[in-house]
Amino acid sequence: MAEIKKAPQQKQTSAARPASAARKTDPSTVFFTKENYKWMLIGGIIIVLGMILMSGGKSQDPNTFDYKVVYSTTRVTIAPILIVGGLLVELYAILRKPKQAPHA
Hints:
Blueprint: H1 19-23, H2 34-55, H3 67-70, H4 73-95
Helix pairs in contact: 2-4
């Protein structure tokens, strides 16, 4: 009869490690730092401010159309600029690399 030979045991690969070992994060692999989150919060506040300014107030008389209220400079110019500015701040927050600590 044919004999079954045992294959030599190999070391565990990273895929075969326990889940607890895979969850530990190395500080060099952290994508966002506290500074990134601070800039994300600032960008979000700017975007929300632009949305609030774009919504504006309500008309005194709902039966009449007031051109100056609907197409005011705040709604048509300032609010969109704030929203785009907030999106640019968000882009900066995402792409900003954390500062490397000096190696001693």
